[in-house]
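A quick aside before the break. I want you to see a complete sequence-to-structure record at least once, exactly as it would be stored in a machine-readable document. Don't worry about memorizing anything.
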Amino acid sequence: MNETPYDGLTPDVILDSLDHFGWQTSGSLLALNSYENRVYQLGLEDDSFVVVKFYRPNRWTTEQIMEEHGFVASLIEHEISCVGPISRDGETLFEYETFRFSVFPRQGGHPPDIENEGNLKVLARTIARIHNVGEVQPFKHRITLSWETMARDNVQFLLQGNWIPLEMESAYESITRDLLTYLENMFTTKLNNLRIHGDCHLGNVLWRDPLPHFVDFDDTLMGPAIQDMWMLFSGSEDEQARQIGTISKAYDEFRPFPHNELRFVEGLRTMRMIHHAAWIARRWHDPAFPQAFPWFDSPKYWSDQVLSLREQLALLAHS
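That is the input. The structure line, written in tokens, reads:
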């Protein structure tokens, strides 16, 4: 694998790639906040703007990317506000100078204020409608959420790769061993998997006029419906209970809320924490990652990580 996968992605290549496929760029280029892929806002000669995403090399196959695009297209057909790739001559995925990319319309907005109960209801209804489309057919090429890939394999990668400071290694190995036992037992239950957004945090929802516009389906996969909702839960136990009550009633307007999946929430949260640490480690060769996460290889980070995982173990033990 190329140790610096975006080395050849110069401003000239970025502009030439769009010009090559018929977009007339003005030369205006602004890098947007993205680590997994490289995303830029480009100005066009007609004074409009587009957003171009260059996919990380060797991450997704063409078939997997096209399933992402197909899912988003189905959502848009059902009048669900999602930002999907622009089609040119029937194509939504392009290749130039070994880089694969897609072009999107620019969408303005800001993360929704979920302390506003009305906003939370709108989000829940929209997610329910996404899931109605998602259950129509399964993905054939995208991955399926599992405790093995999200947790077990990532723990093994971190322990075997000398990522954890020596003084924290024993503590990390001990706490993750106990967590993996809980996760294995928890996820022996067969999940009702469907096509979901997969990474439905508030940064991937742009609120405007006053609607949620869902963006960045890069992590779409087969998984349980609750995966698209648990990141909306925050605060104390009582606050989360109120949020779940609001979300479940609004979600029920379009499909039955999966109350039976609430018991997986802390397990899913634990897996995300483990996965996030391994994600940074797996991308450490990309120069953008040491710059963005300079604390990652510090003893304090891993000490805090162990503490947080211990808190998760306590929650799992009492769930």
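Two observations worth writing down. The radius of gyration is 21 Å. The beta strands are 25-31, 38-44, 49-54, 94-96, 99-105, 194-196, 205-208, 211-214, 221-223. We'll return to this after the break.
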